[in-house]
Amino acid sequence: MIKVLLYEDNPQLREGLTMLIGGSEGFDVLAGFKNCNNVVEEVQAFNPDVILMDIDMPGVNGIEGLKQIRAVNTAVKILMLTVFDDNKNVFQAISNGANGYILKKTPPGKLLEYIAEANTGGAPMTASVATQVLKMFSSMNNEKGEDYNLSDREKQVLQLLVDGFSYKMIASDMFIAIDTVRSHIKKIYEKLHVNSKSEAVAKAFKDRII
Amino acid sequence: MIKVLLYEDNPQLREGLTMLIGGSEGFDVLAGFKNCNNVVEEVQAFNPDVILMDIDMPGVNGIEGLKQIRAVNTAVKILMLTVFDDNKNVFQAISNGANGYILKKTPPGKLLEYIAEANTGGAPMTASVATQVLKMFSSMNNEKGEDYNLSDREKQVLQLLVDGFSYKMIASDMFIAIDTVRSHIKKIYEKLHVNSKSEAVAKAFKDRII
DNA sequence: TCAGCACTCACATTTTTATGTGGTTGCCCG
DNA sequence: CGGGCAACCACATAAAAATGTGAGTGCTGA
């Protein structure tokens, strides 16, 4: 039995969802609320498996509610439910630990499926939302700079530098002499056009070499 | 009629997929290939709507194939198909413009649904993959974990360290004595729980202090 | 087969960092 | 008004890193 908590300001929709979900085999609607003003207390009191959270609500909105819940509970599954799949809200929601993001126009059958999916650790998303997420993701990560073509060994050394290892530690970790570590590092500096450990580390992060 | 192109090295699976998809109403399998060695030419010749792309193939693998296609064609929908939902591949795939990422264990009915969804601009994803994507996303965007409460001056010094400045340079840049730089840095190390410049730099990046 | 390159190691020297132990100012807040 | 703290400075020493020069091995590809 999947225990569901509802947050939705529209009384008709809230009723409708309660009927639909509560009337289905395997689902139980614990309660429904019209805003997130006491969301933390309510979640703690009811201890649901899945929360359906509308975004556009008066008072404390869904994103804010999501944050508040996540501040004290990272286990409960939270499905954002909204009319629009606007970029900003999607971004905010998933950045703050929402487990899924579905549109209100989702057909009833699908909705139940999504809730079940979220409950078992999935991340149900309306297709259009998924598309947005992928776009955001790829736009964020596309500018891998140059290659610097470090050799495997050099990459390995650089990784250890990033992890805060000293030359001595790297040497013992890689089973080579400390002087060998030195020459690797000298080579790395040449390739990255830097001349200190910390610059190399910074560059490794900036250019996502590691 | 959705025109589909298949890339899958396993002959049985390729045949099976061809049967399944080609035998379904509204779908047409144009061709199937066992590797991506001539992927660009093939895609241009057949001009499919959707490409099903296996990741683990000998020769040019699926990720590489994806890149090559995207270099010349950003319109065709590409669905990655794989046995594992390992982090690295998912990341690579979506960073390079895949439209979806589904596991081979996906039931036949779902598969057709996914292809149709991709064709209409959706981003079908196996739930476990979607979960991963959300995790990656939120881990990339989580606002600075701890605070470490560095003072303004300390933040300034750390910033210069990240920029590759030596103590001497920091001193002249900030118009303070090198010994003052030292004491600032010692304090920073205490607060960040590190004991070397490069560790501090790494932490600055990881925890987005800068 | 020969040049190029990655990888390995050695020795020496200088520079930079890290650590420790002091101290002085000036500000804010109880 | 006095304690706490950020910011400043000094001296000393040990450890680590950076730089230079040189050299052997083994693989690869022209």
Can you walk me through this structure?
The structure is a homodimer of 210-residue chains. The first copy, chain A, is α/β, with parallel strands linked by helices and 210 residues long. In chain A, 52% of the residues lie in helices and 13% in strands. Chain A is built from ten helices and five strands, in the order βαβαβαβαβαααααα. The first copy, chain A, has helices at residues 11-22, 39-46, 62-72, 87-95, 108-119, 127-140, 152-162, 167-174, 178-192, 197-206; strands at residues 2-7, 27-33, 50-54, 77-82, 100-103. In chain A, strands 2-1-3-4-5 form a five-stranded parallel sheet, with helices on both faces. The first copy, chain A, is elongated. Chain A starts with a strand and ends with a helix. At the A-B interface, α6 and α10 of A face α4, α6 and α10 of B. Chain A binds a DNA duplex (30 and 30 nucleotides) through α7 and α9.
Summarize the helices and strands and which ones pair or pack.
The structure is a homodimer of 210-residue chains.
Chain A: E1 2-7, H1 11-22, E2 27-33, H2 39-46, E3 50-54, H3 62-72, E4 77-82, H4 87-95, E5 100-103, H5 108-119, H6 127-140, H7 152-162, H8 167-174, H9 178-192, H10 197-206
Parallel strand pairs in A: 1-2, 1-3, 3-4, 4-5
Chain A binds a DNA duplex (30 and 30 nucleotides) through residues 151-154, 166-168, 176-180, 182-187, 189, 195-197.
